[in-house]
Amino acid sequence: MKEYRPHEIEPKWQKVWEERGVFTTPQYSDKPKYYALVMFPYPSGTLHVGHVKNYVIGDIVARYKRMQGYNVLHPFGYDAFGLPAENAAIANKIHPKKWTFDNINTIRGQIKKLGISYDWSREVITCTEDYYKWTQWIFLKLYEAGLAYKKPGAVNWCPSCQTVLANEQVKDGKCERCGTPVTMKHLEQWYFKITDYAEKLLEGLDRLEGWPEHVKTMQRNWIGKSTGAEIDFPVEGTDKKIRIFTTRPDTIYGVTFMAVAPESPLVLELVTEDKKAEVEAFLAKVALEDRFKRTSLEAKKEGVFLGRYAINPLTGERIPIYVANYILYEYGTGAIMAVPAHDQRDHDFAKAYNLPIRQVIKPYEGEWNVEEKAYEDEGIMVNSGPFNGLNSKDGIEAVIKFLEEKGIGKRSVQYKLRDWLISRQRYWGAPIPVVYCQKCGIVPVPEDELPVRLPEDVEFLPTGQSPLMLSEEFKATKCPKCGGPAQREVETMDTFVDSSWYFLRYVNPRLDDKPFDTKDVNYWLPVDQYIGGVEHAVLHLLYSRFITKVLHDLGYVGFDEPFENLFTQGMIYKDGWKMSKSKGNVVSPDDMVEKFGADTLRMYILFMAPPEKDAEWNDAGIEGVHRFLRRLWNNYYRILELLKSGQVEDRELNKEERQLRRKLHAMIKKIKEDIEGGFKFNTAIAGLMEFNNQLSDYLESSNSFHAGLLNEIAEKVALILSPFAPHMAEEMWHDLGKQTLIVEEKWPDYDPSALIEEEITMVVQVNGKVRGKIVVPAEAAEEEIKSEALKNVEKLIAGKSVEKVVYVPRKLVNIVVK
Ligand code: ANZ
Ligand code: ZN
After folding, report:
1. What residues sit around ligand 2, an ion, with C-beta below 5 angstroms?
2. Residue 409, SS3?
3. Global ipTM
4. Residue 12 to residues 95, 370, 599, 745, Cα–Cα distance (Å)
5. pLDDT digit string (tens) for 587-621?
6. Do strands 174-175 and 170-171 pair parallel, antiparallel, or not at all (unpaired)?
7. Tens digit of each residue's pLDDT (9 = 90 or more) over 46-69
8. Is the CB of 339 under 6 A from ligand 1?
9. Where in the chain is the domain with CATH 3.10.20.590?
10. What CATH number belongs to 759-817?
11. CB of 672 shorter than 6 A to ligand 1
12. Which CATH class is domain 225-415?
């Protein structure tokens, strides 16, 4: 019998698929379209099996949808600019370009060995001129629309990567890339005005039914919408006002102090002469502190009295004004009305500085001692003059209405989201396409002069200054407006700009007069299924939605959400740890392909756990899957032998064969349901394993075989196997005598009439314990089954009295005796 030799059949079929171009996607077709997309990798090293999980899931979806009759777009590319590749290149003392392309070649080879059905003719590499030209074009479009701007301000700085970072790239105060604690710097930087899209980004989430709830929640929290009011508090003895933002205008009668952020210019405007020295010392101390620690909930609340009082516009009371470390300058108005009775941060501060705590909200039921702890929930307004007795929800509305009528406040919405800082002081990125002219100021590079090329012979080691600064050749240019001497911008764009539109480029990867064709992208997008890691929830996934919405509003694309369905796969751990080079626990796909073949690796990755769950790599597990594939192969070729040698009969199916056929069709039905009902590939594969066991039983125990049934099994099993273990399935299909390629075949339907059971097996229990089994006709009546069950345990219950017979249809009969 023919042996299973993955190392022979896998390269063979990969070559056939490539030569016949079976995965090359026609731009248009009569079939409905389906865009299956996986997150493209940073080519900062080689792939480990964690990446492979992403691509295998994508490939199953693509192959399955192709078999369902869709015109499938399944492309691949590399997020090739940026810190990950550049840092790795520096560590390896190789030019980032060489490092990146070497890795790309390795990765491409790794993936080709896995038999993933990418349309390689659409490969996209973000560090090539024909790609980054269009990244620069996107910058220009945002600039023209007033959505790209430069401003000075406090920015996140990674002392190790020697560059600024966007807020999204700071995780728990550390650099998302290298884990170094982030510091602050005052710099003039380029931003994209993502805050203009805060509301649209929130609204869109409500329409994304195909996204996991937890990812939407992360984005909502990141955008951080708060509704409330801005209120002006006059400063006693001056004509100045402090404007505050509050989400709880209903607590305004409980204000006992005001607090201003240390960075606010108000501090030095308001401080009285006698407090000046103390305040300045405090500001100097705060300036040295870590902003993330300082403003965290647990941090010690500190501040200094400014020597001045504000007037509560509702009560006319005098309230002391403090500068306090827990107030963020960048949020709201950078100043607050403090209500210690109902806000724990204010409570902590009041306790530290002996300020009054006045309760103005009481719980709907019971009492609350605000001296001990702030009451932050809703309740009934008390000590609040004309508002007493209102519940806090109505109170918020009533107070806002009152403030608006008096002209001292207004309804206000605030977002936590900040503009996206996109400039980087690094070499390996797309140069920002503007020049600085002494006469004209900032001048965008005209579209027809793109790309602004990244020079190659530059000292790229990070120094904190952009390496392009050192290239006189790059820097010196002419002003496009006046023709006078000008200097190019020397900073480059954040990698997340590159990846915020790559899914559009796959549609027209070689177009050289536009980034993409509007008609074509409107046909292919939104992406039907996007698959990737959850670590990008507020980075890439938010930025891509933003850029898509901008392009939509500028009329370049007809859709305003790029990804209709999102699936986030779990990670693969090894020895309890996330795989990493430094831990030395990386499982290389190449080793696994070498040892077991790609089909085994693919199958194992899908079988090890539900794909959305994290899973632990287990060597015994992959061996088990490999043995299964061998058993399946052996059964299959035994069938082919039987068919070929004519040891089969044309007759009616016998009982066992009818049963086996039922199992076959039940499996086909289940696998379809498992795939479509949430990517349950692991249970789909388990279904295939179960069927294979039943098939073994039949092949081993029968002495006469049914020709039609064997043919049907051979055909259906190969088809069902083909998305999972495509090489093996292709070989089987070929040996079955088919002239076509299985990758171009249709997914099999199940025969509903085959599913009707003739007999069912039911469990018989006595007092809840399993005591026997009965096989009854599927259409048998309840009474018939009960008496059959009683007969089955006759001896056991002899002499006892039957109290009750519990009947669970199709499952069990439980006889309760005394
Ligand atoms: C008075 C008040 C009373 C508040 C009360 C809360 C509870 P979110 O939900 O995060 O938007 N706040 C406003 N601006 C701030 C800033 N720049 N730095 C630190 N805290 C600031 O929270 C809004 C609340 O956070 C605001 O409502 C304000 O405190 C505080 F019982 O005003 B509140
Ligand atoms: Zn000029």
Report:
1. 437, 439-440, 479, 481-482, 484
2. strand
3. 0.97
4. 36, 76, 13, 19
5. 899 999 999 999 999 999 999 999 999 999 999 99
6. antiparallel
7. 899 989 999 999 999 999 999 999
8. yes
9. 759-817
10. 3.10.20.590
11. no
12. alpha beta
